[in-house]
Design brief:
8-stranded mixed sheet; 3-stranded antiparallel sheet; PDZ; PDZ domain-containing protein GIPC1; PDZ_sf
Length: 351
């Protein structure tokens, strides 16, 4: 029987603050102390008996544009302003700081909608005009599931910050018939074992390894439901305004700085196809992983070079089979030659 747990109390937020005040909370611009810098120069010049070195003329250095994004909590909150992040974890921390909530409360983010829309998930790229909605933890749920078939019918993704959650439930599958389990639920525990901090492929593997015919306990946490039906971004200026053309995106990486890019149609189609293969063969969905695979394949001249590139990268931890690597290379080769014009929407989850 399903067991429900008390819903978490409302998170602290900026309910009494204006957007301008919220902006101040999220403003992380550094405030350099010129006196500290000068003091260091004085000490050095004093020790050497010389004069201060000339400071560079900052007037000749053009100011670096600052990317600013607007955000809300999906269940309802004032609009916040965040900036200064280079990866997903930093983005979540900025949102948490903006609303004075623990970063562990954020399950995932969607772009330009407060709804739990898996087609709008925030992944490795954010449009410069995008409005970010943060979905926070709601009610925990615990159900018993009997694995009567080989596949449960789930597609798992993660938020890049330690939480795996359900992205898709196959119609007519075992999990489709389990009450109260829904798309967007964070998979917190299996048989009492915490999965916090696990990547999507690790959670998928644990589900796949459950023996057919056995019963297990699944604990999930649903996103906090919205009490408002018309919440949404303001109709005024949003995003980074003068920087965004509607096509440019901010590319977030797990390592290295974020960069502003103009999406390439071939790259977009190729990464979608690779993501579909990941979903079909491994039951996971990860745009950043798909983009990494594409970048390795783009530089390779043949399947052998591609396989070596996979093995020598951080992707070796996934343990891709030779057949799967060959299928990935087929998608990449088709994309390079222009044969990959559309992506199939059919998925065959394997766990």
């Amino acid at each position: 029987m399903p067991r429900f747990f008390p819903s978490r109390k409302g998170n602290k937020n900026n309910d009494n603050k204006t957007p301008a005040e919220t902006s101040n909370l999220a403003n992380d611009s550094p405030h350099p102390n010129s006196n500290d810098s000068t003091a260091g120069n004085d000490a050095n010049s004093g020790n050497n008996g010389g004069s201060k070195s000339a400071r560079p003329n900052s007037e000749n250095i053009p100011p670096r544009p600052k990317l600013v994004f607007h955000c809300q909590q999906a269940h309802g909150s004032p609009t916040g302003i965040i900036s200064g992040f280079t990866n997903v974890k930093e983005l979540y921390q900025k949102i948490a700081d903006c609303y004075d909530i623990p970063v562990t409360e954020i399950l995932f983010c969607t772009l330009n909608t407060h709804k739990i829309d898996m087609t709008r998930l925030l992944g490795g790229q954010i449009g410069l005009e995008d409005f970010i909605f943060a979905h926070v933890k709601g009610q925990p749920k615990e159900v018993e599931v009997t694995k009567s078939e080989d596949a449960l019918g789930l597609t798992i993704t993660d938020n890049g910050a330690g939480y795996a959650f359900i992205k898709r439930i196959k119609e007519g599958s075992i999990m489709d018939k389990v009450p109260f389990i829904a798309v967007g639920d964070h998979i917190e525990k299996i048989n009492g074992e915490s999965l916090i901090g696990c990547r999507h492929f690790e959670v998928a593997k644990k589900l796949k390894e459950i023996e057919k015919g056995s019963t297990f306990v699944l604990r999930t946490v649903e996103p906090l439901k919205s009490g408002f039906s018309n919440i949404g971004p303001s109709t005024g200026k949003k995003g980074s305004g003068n920087l965004g053309s509607g096509k440019q995106t901010l590319r977030l990486r797990s390592s290295g700085p974020a960069t502003v890019e103009i999406p390439d149609e071939i790259v977009t189609v190729a990464t979608d196809k690779i993501n579909n293969l990941l979903e079909s063969f491994m039951g996971i969905n990860d745009t950043e992983l798909a983009q990494t695979i594409w970048e390795i394949g783009r530089k390779a001249n043949n399947p052998s070079d591609f396989a070596i590139g996979i093995d020598e990268s951080d992707l070796g931890m996934f343990g891709f089979t030779d057949d799967f690597v060959f299928d990935l290379w087929g998608a990449i080769s088709d994309a390079k030659s222009g044969r990959l014009n559309q992506v199939s929407a059919d998925f065959n989850e394997q766990f």
